Amino acid sequence: MKTLASILLLGVVASISVTAHADGEATYNQACMVCHMTGAAGAPIRGNAEHWEPRLEKDMDTLYDHAINGFQAMPPKGGQLGLSDDEVKAAVDHLLEPVL
Predict the structure, then answer these.
(1) Which residues are CB-contacts of 67 (< 8 A; sequence separation ≥ 6)?
(2) Which of 2, 83, 96, 100 is most exposed by smallest CB count within 10 Å?
(3) What pLDDT does residue 29 have?
(4) Whole-angstrom Cα distance, residue 60 to residue 17?
(5) Over the stretch 11-23, which tens digit does the pLDDT of each residue have?
(6) What is the gyration radius of the CA atoms in the chain, in angstroms?
(7) Predicted local confidence at residue 88, as pLDDT
């Protein structure tokens, strides 16, 4: 019974940890805002539907892949290589929120 309780507790802690680390707004502010607020290097601006329209024609997996692995002038993970893929995906979700 102690083993089962330990496993359940570890699952709860892991779940809390993932949720804490996958704060899309905080990750956006840390890694994405500089370019996606100003349009630097051709970055589509957050909230500008016209900028995002052609990108949204692609599926979300493509947008996540570009954010994680880099695309054109954007470096992988916005230059913050210490970010997890889940953190980057949460930032993409936050970035797209105003235009979805």
Answers:
(1) 74, 77, 78, 88, 89, 91, 92
(2) 2
(3) 96
(4) 24
(5) 433 434 444 447 9
(6) 16
(7) 98
Is residue 11 within 8 Å of 80, Cβ to Cβ?
A: no
On whether the CB atoms of residues 99 and 44 are closer than 8 A, the answer is no
Mean pLDDT of the chain: 85
Q: 64: which 2 tokens? A: 């996540």
Mean pLDDT in residue range 25-42: 96
How far apart CA 52 and CA 14 sit, in angstroms, is 34
35: Cα separation from own chain's centroid: 14
Task: Please answer whether residues 90 and 42 qualify as being in contact, where contact means their C-beta atoms are separated by less than 8 angstroms.
Answer: no
Distance CA 83, CA 68 (A): 9
| Backbone torsion region of residue 58, taken as left when φ is above 0, otherwise alpha when ψ lies between -120 and 50, otherwise beta | beta
